[in-house]
Amino acid sequence: MTSSPPVIDLDRVTKEYPGGVCALRDVSLRIVPDELTAIVGPSGSGKSTMLQLMGTLDRPTRGTVRILGHDVAALDDRQLSAVRASWIGFVFQQCYLTAHLTAVQNVANGLFYHGLPRRARLREAAAALDRVGLGHRRDHRPAELSGGERQRVAIARALVARPAIVLADEPTGALDSRSGETVVQLLHELHRDGTTIAVITHDAGIARSFDRQVEILDGEISAAGSA
Amino acid sequence: MNTPPLPRSARLRAADLIGVGLLGLRGRPMRAVLSALGIAIGIAAMVAVLGIGAASQARLLNRIASLGTNLLTVTPGQNLFGKNTPLPDAAVDMVGRIGPVLSASATGSVAGATVRRTDKIDPRETKGIEVLAGRLDLLPTLGGKLSAGAWLSPATGRYPAVVLGATAARLLGVDEPGRQVFIAGQWFTVLGILAPLDLTPEINTAALVGWDVATSRLGFDGHPTKIYTRAVTEAVGAVRDVLARTANPQDPSAVNVSRPSDALTAQLAAKNTFGSLLIGLGAVSLLVGGVGVANTMIISVLERRAEIGLRRALGARRRQILLQFLTEAVALSALGGLAGAALGVAATVVYAGAQGWPLVLPTTGIAAGVGSSIVIGAAAGLYPALRAGRLPPSEALSTG
Ligand SMILES: Nc1ncnc2c1ncn2[C@@H]1O[C@H](COP(=O)(O)OP(=O)(O)O)[C@@H](O)[C@H]1O
Ligand SMILES: [Mg+2]
Questions:
Q1: Which long-range contacts (CB under 8 A, 24 or more apart) does A115-122 make?
Q2: Ligand 1 pocket at CB < 6 A
Q3: For residue B366, what are the CA distances in angstroms to B33, B58, B284, B360?
Q4: Fewer CB near the terminus (10 Å): N or C of chain A?
Q5: Residue A92: domain span
Q6: How do residues B119-147 score in pLDDT, each as one tens digit?
Q7: Would residue A189 count as lying in a domain?
Q8: Is the dihedral angle over the CA atoms B230, B233, B239, B241 positive or is it negative?
Q9: How far is B334 from chain A (nearest CA, A)?
Q10: How confident is the model at residue B268 (pLDDT cuts 50, 70, 90)?
């Protein structure tokens, strides 16, 4: 009998920054397919550090990070980049959209490092925009969109490559509460459609609406809800 | 456990690489234009210098071809003992009898004779005009033309009549035939004025009188001092080899033979100092332009840390980030190079057109200009691109 490995497996991970700051201490966490996990904690508790380790944007000082069973420490830049391109979708607090590109062109950038021709990228991007409910805003530039819409474009860009997991770092942090609410609703919908998602937030209210909550304080996991 | 295989890493397509390089420039078009300006000016200067040089060279080549390269001259020189040896009187006829010679003629210096506008002017004021006895067949041999009046004829060659070279006429203030000038104490009537001659400038500053009248009235000794001869083009070398022996069989070493078109051909090889100055300025401008591109790229990398971080998060490899910024630098510089080449060609067209020169597009110059702008862009972009590629994604994305 075969079982699929956790999408992300942090095994006793410690991250120390140069200068002596210990941002994560001996953290273990598994995220399995189809989970919707909230990682919640106050500012400075180590949430972003954890997301960067889960997303292979940084390497741990000690401990092991596995993505779908592959130990990140054994992978070179080329392999890590391919892992990020195909398996991990990122959403950040700032949308990081290119100002002079349209919504669909921005979403298509999510496939830029996949080797797909441009037409195919734009076709996939249009479908991803439809999934986040912005099909009608396809040819608008970021400046013509509301903050919430911009973040939904960024989510479409994270989804367009059909990653194994979407990692979102404070996706509502820069939004007013109403726009934030639409973004949270969208994450729930995507989860219902079968997307594995980990959301970082310092907002306990938002975290409560998620199935699983992981609380983090001063670089250590203080409480982990059940899967 | 059922671990899926690692995803394959993909190469960036060439079209995507160029697209992303140009995209970066679109973000700040004004800055791109300004930083490409130095390159554009440098390339424009170089292309213009090469283009104008090629046009003037083509003009010179055309001129040499139209003048003919088959004219040879013979002048008396010194013998082995350093003694001035005049050419024999019969030299012209002897030269004319060489097989491949088409025509031969001569002038003879009239010693001590000067030409003046009136008898009131000081005879020492020669203005560099020489009085020459000219054979009647001189004009056809030189291929000369008259700008006014007539050439010497058997009849007028015996009378006090003179034909002025173009420069001599201007210096004497004579602009039409029929005027009188004062030569060695006698009035001569101006019969004609010659059009300027390129191969034989000494004729331009001459006052030509008939061989007979020079002998009878001006005390001319009858020795030719310069023989002009045209030979069949293919045999010019052979004729040249026998000219000295033919003109003066007694003392061939005392004869100088030359080919006037050689002097013009030498001009082709001569360096144009103004051109090298401009090339130097162009090179300095290129260097400054390259530094400008490097500077722009460094600022660009600093400003676009977030974009670099995002691209790494989207799956860009270090090398792909490096290539992106390198492409951007090359695109920036190459656009400057293309604009500069267009500007240089435009300057060439305008200048050559105004001078009435034939237009020759300096294709190698254009290719070299655009090529060197690409090389400069790559060199200028290398360091910023390396920095962009080395930026760790976590650092690029941190807002702090
Ligand atoms: N690149 C870095 N270099 C040094 N210290 C850092 C760096 N990034 C984060 N930190 C420190 O690590 C701790 C955790 O930061 P972070 O993971 O960003 O927390 P959070 O996202 O929960 O606010 C903080 O004390 C922060 O100052
Ligand atoms: Mg954070």
A1: A115/B10, A115/B11, A115/B13, A117/B13, A118/B15, A118/B16, A118/B19
A2: A 17, 19, 21, 23, 41, 43-49; B 398
A3: 20, 18, 18, 12
A4: N
A5: 8-224
A6: 777 767 777 889 999 999 999 998 888 99
A7: yes
A8: positive
A9: 23
A10: low
Q: Using CA atoms, how far apart are residues B321 and A220, in angstroms rounded to an integer?
A: 34
Looking at ligand 1, which residue's alpha carbon is closest to its atom 13?
A: A23
Question: Would you give the distance in Å from CA B211 to the centre of its chain?
Answer: 39
With 0-12 CB in 10 A as exposed, 13-18 as middle and 19+ as buried, what is A220? Answer: middle
Q: Which residue has the tokens 């040499």?
A: B64
Q: In b/e form, how buried is each residue of B335-355, taking b as 16+ CB within 10 angstroms?
A: bbbbbbbebbbebbeebbeee
How many Å is the maximal CA-CA distance in chain B? 126
Residue A32 lies in a domain: yes
* ipTM value greater than 0.90: yes
How many CA within 13 A on the CB side of residue A184?
Answer: 23
Residues 6+ apart with CB under 8 A from B130: B109, B202, B205, B206, B207
Res. B395: pLDDT tops 90: no
- Asked if B192 contacts B134 with a C-beta cutoff of 8 angstroms, the reply is no
Is the pLDDT at A31 greater than 90? The verdict is: yes
Position B256 pLDDT exceeds 50: yes
Q: Which of A110-119, B77-86, B259-268 has the largest mean confidence?
A: A110-119
| Residue of B54, B103, B91, B60 lying closest to B265 (CA atoms) | B60
Instruction: Tell me, rounded to whole angstroms, the distance of Cα B166 from its chain centroid.
Output: 24
- Residue A76 in any domain: the answer is yes
Alpha carbons B314 and B317: distance in angstroms, whole number? 9
* Sign (positive or negative) of CA dihedral A67, A72, A75, A76: positive
Nearest bound ligand to the CA of residue B394: 1
SS3 content of chain A, % helix, strand, coil (to 5): 40, 25, 35
Asked whether the beta carbons of residue A98 and residue B307 sit closer than 8 angstroms, the reply is yes
How many A from CA of A52 to the centre of ligand 2? Answer: 10
Domain count, chain A: 1
Ligand located closest to A50 CA: 1
Give the pairing of strands A220-224 and B71-76. Answer: unpaired
Q: What is the pLDDT of residues B179-212, one digit of tens each?
A: 889 888 889 999 999 999 888 889 999 999 999 8
Token output for B70: 């088959």
pLDDT beyond 80 at A52: yes
pLDDT tens for residues A191-204?
999 999 999 999 88
Q: In this predicted model, what pLDDT tens digit does every residue of B292-350 receive, in sequence order?
A: 999 999 999 999 999 999 999 999 999 999 999 999 999 999 999 999 999 999 999 99
The structure tokens listed for B278 are 């401009």
DSSP-based three-state secondary structure for B88: coil
